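Summary of Year 1 activities. Much of the first year was spent building the evaluation harness for sequence design. The harness presents a backbone, in tokenized form, and records the residue chosen at every position. We chose the following record to illustrate the format because it has been used consistently in internal testing since the harness was completed.
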């Protein structure tokens, strides 16, 4: 069986949402002729922990770890937090925090850490990668970003050992959406663009989790058109086994899972929810994960503070239970290239989805194709979904293509096709 090295910063017990794509694709790949090996960091001190995810790792899977410099530990000291105090992702880039320490830390993060704050793993990751190649017969490399600094490790190892290289882009790199409200110097942008281009042009094939993101990169780098692929984020069918909807009678919960940032505020929707409550509906807002200060302020201004619950981080399985118990599932798709990972788990629940995003045709199309919910602009109140929610019965047949076992099969096809082509080319060159 051919072996593929997965380079991923996030790995259990990290509870980072982006962990679920590599974790589950790795699980299914051996069914299709590829045995994964994992290179990751010794410890992710930023993300909340989810110890339950450790049970999903095959004991036979080889996982190599190396230490990384974690700048967020210094950030905690700088802003006065204790070493063991949990950071909130949405707060670290909040625009409502006007303190001088926060503003300085934002500038440092946006301009001195290129391409991102995890670049401190670069040298250690390459060193450990060399050890892996000396011990294992690796046939291909897959790097999963963000953090996109992981792709630089993958590229360096692929060049040194002449192996096929497949960067996976869960989010865009240089112009990711949360950069848009912050200043990055011309020098920073020039270096970052150079690194992005280097990875794309030297990859064997690049993989994107949305069609729109792929098209955007192909437009930016035309040479990548023949080697760019789309593999959606997907969901795990087995995670939904034995989960049942247990809604409290008469109560309607609107649930958002994951991080929600200041730039994803939907003030007109909060006002509409309050109006529905005032008219006698028993609506409640529930947030699982991190909620930025700006969002909380907006909800309070709408008069919803007594109708809102902030749960915080929950282990993955418990989070899925909460999705099943909700009446509506809320998602903010901030920009056209963004298809949130949670959308696919939302789809599998069969609950009506309320989506917000400006000009996000891809999310809109997915919702329409599966009859799963409605898409609104950020300045709309989304009220129509309450009027016709009973019309939304998700097409279970159409969402099956998003099952991660199917996604893993598609990845194996890409790996095998490129491996066979490369292998044949080398033989012909002899």
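For this record, the design step produced the sequence shown next.
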């Amino acid at each position: 069986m051919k072996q593929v090295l997965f380079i991923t910063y996030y790995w259990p017990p990290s509870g980072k949402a982006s962990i679920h794509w590599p974790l589950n694709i790795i699980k299914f790949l051996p069914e299709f002729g590829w045995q994964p090996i994992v290179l990751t960091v010794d410890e992710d001190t930023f993300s909340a922990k989810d110890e339950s995810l450790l049970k999903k790792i095959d004991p036979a899977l080889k996982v190599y770890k190396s230490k990384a410099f974690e700048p967020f530990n210094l950030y905690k000291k700088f802003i006065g937090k204790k070493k063991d105090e949990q950071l909130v992702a949405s707060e670290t880039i909040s625009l409502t925090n006007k303190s001088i320490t926060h503003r300085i830390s934002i500038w440092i993060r946006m301009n001195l850490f290129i391409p991102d704050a995890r670049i401190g793993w670069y040298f250690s990751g390459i060193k450990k990668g060399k050890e892996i190649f000396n011990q294992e017969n690796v046939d291909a490399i897959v790097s999963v970003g963000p953090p996109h600094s992981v792709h630089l490790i993958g590229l360096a190892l692929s060049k040194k050992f002449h192996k096929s290289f497949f960067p996976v882009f869960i989010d865009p790199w240089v112009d990711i959406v949360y950069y848009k409200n912050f200043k990055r110097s011309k020098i920073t942008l020039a270096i970052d663009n150079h690194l992005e281009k280097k990875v794309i042009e030297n990859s064997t094939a690049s993989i994107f989790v949305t069609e729109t993101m792929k098209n955007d990169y192909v437009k930016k780098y035309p040479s990548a058109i023949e080697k760019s692929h789309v593999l959606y984020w997907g969901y795990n069918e087995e995670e939904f086994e034995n989960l049942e909807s247990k809604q409290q009678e008469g109560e309607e919960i609107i649930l958002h899972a994951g991080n929600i940032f200041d730039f994803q505020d939907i003030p007109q929707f909060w006002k509409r929810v309050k109006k529905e409550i005032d008219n006698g509906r028993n609506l409640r807002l529930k947030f699982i994960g991190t909620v930025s200060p700006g969002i909380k302020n907006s909800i309070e201004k709408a008069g919803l503070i007594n109708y809102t619950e902030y749960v915080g981080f929950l282990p993955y399985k418990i989070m899925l239970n909460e999705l099943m118990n909700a009446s509506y599932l809320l998602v903010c798709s901030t920009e056209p290239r963004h298809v949130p990972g949670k959308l696919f788990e939302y789809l599998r629940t069969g609950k009506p989805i309320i989506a917000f995003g400006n000009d996000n045709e891809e999310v809109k199309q997915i919702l329409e194709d599966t009859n799963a919910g409605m898409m609104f602009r950020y300045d709309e109140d989304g009220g129509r979904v309450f009027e016709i929610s009973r019309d939304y019965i998700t097409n279970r047949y159409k969402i099956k293509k998003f099952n991660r076992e199917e996604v893993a099969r598609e990845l194996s096809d890409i790996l095998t096709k490129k491996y066979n082509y490369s292998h044949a080319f080398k033989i012909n060159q002899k």
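Residues 88 and 290 are 6 Å apart (CA to CA). Quantitative recovery figures across the full test set are reported in Table 2.
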